[in-house]
Amino acid sequence: MKDSLEGWENLASAEYLLDKYNNHIGVTHLSLSGGEDYFFDLKCEKDYLRAFRECAPFKAIVGKRAKAFNTGTIDVYNLNSDNKGSGAEAKSIRNVIAKPNVLQTQKQFFSQQNHYIDIFGYVPILRMRPVGMVDELTSLWNIPPWLFDLDYTRKWLKEKSISGIYKDYFIFWNGERIKLKFDDIFFIYDDAIGTDYDSELTIPDSRLISLEYPVSNIVAAYKARNTLITKRGAIGILSNGAKDQAGVIPLDLDEKKKLQSDFKRYGLIGQPFQVIISDANLQWQQMGFPTADLMLFEEIDDDINRLCDGYGWPVELMSRTKDVTFDNKKQAMKSAYRDTIIPESDSRLEQFSMGIVSEGANLYVWSDFTKVEVLQEDKKLVADTRAAMSSTAEKEYKAGLITKNRWLELIGEEKNPDPEFEKYYDEQQEQQTQLGQAEQPATPEDKSAAPESKTDK
């Protein structure tokens, strides 16, 4: 995303950009103890891509979020009525959403889109349109952010159009920097801010920028565990315990070779012997380092918590072996939808709508999550609660304790302006009213009946 190096007179800035273009990621720094410190220096798109490839918990969180986004039902709606949109443009948008391009289904396209936004903080989208038909869409493509670049105009606050801020768009392909048609590109941004010191602050930061230490710690911990398993070295020292007047008697070369040969015949799996029987005076010195003392698992768990915090994903929904019950997971999933998935989906599809709906069409694209199974339980609970409240209010009304309008208020409905709804229950008058209704067909204008609960419909 960084602009070209031309015009950069500050040496530190130039070195910073060169570092980003050379893709110096996962940098290995020398340690004061003589070993190596493994650290992910997360600065640009290729850094974020490598973090996604190498940090398994991070990849899992992004994947789980993408699946949650895809559980919603995406459709086109009318901006004025919130009913499903109709007309030629609504039909055209539905068609392109159902099959965005020749390679992807709807769920594949939006899963990829949400992956890109979560990892990089934004996604450029390419609109394909017939020649001369700017309001028609034939396909949509998510452009991988690590292959995308743009030039800035170096202007910002006083601009009234996107072309006043961004000058040109490019894609890197087969070693070439190919210019894209400006009007065919639009963006979807993460709900964050940019923290650069120039025009680049118009692009939000990736959430990974503040998570480089947790990502580095997780990858380093996995590498440490792998090293302990595959390259642990000698597990101990078997030495001669016999002594003479001069001290410990050393083993000669032939005795060492014989001991090594004998030792290979002992073990738990595949070796013929499990117990060593010897008349030699030998002693054992343990060399292995207890992995529990390194607290690698605790470190990984804590870093996963930080990643979950950064992406609004409940840690209870990660693979954990303790302290999580089925009810915990169910409540955590409800929280994930209510606090993260639905608000972020609304924001992203609002931007998506601005990119594909023609100006003045009064249409928008929205994802409906009301049919998600875990949210259905809350919906049923609300309906049952409302029905119980309406039943209680009816009894109070017939006991002469409340008016019909108060009944309506108790079940969450607005008051009726009819003066009859401010009167208390009169059994004799109610019977006369019902008798009159029985003699005449009910009409929509008849407002004297008790309010009907929506749950009874």
Question: How would you describe this structure to a colleague?
Answer:
- With 457 residues, the chain is α+β, with helices and mostly antiparallel strands.
- It folds into three domains: 11-216 and 304-368, no CATH class; 234-287; 373-456, no CATH class.
- Helices cover 41% and strands 15% of the residues.
- The protein contains 13 helices and 14 strands.
- The protein has helices at residues 11-21, 45-54, 56-69, 88-98, 106-120, 212-230, 253-263, 291-294, 296-310, 326-356, 373-398, 404-410, 427-439; strands at 27-30, 36-39, 73-78, 122-128, 139-142, 148-152, 166-173, 176-180, 185-189, 236-240, 243-244, 247-248, 282-286, 363-368.
- The protein has a three-stranded antiparallel sheet. Strands 6-7-8 form a three-stranded antiparallel sheet, with no helix packed on it. A two-stranded antiparallel sheet has the order 1-2.
- The longest helix has 31 residues, at 326-356.
- The radius of gyration is 34 Å and the shape is flat.
- The two termini are 56 Å apart.
- Residues 2-35, 442-450 and 453-457 have low confidence and may be disordered.
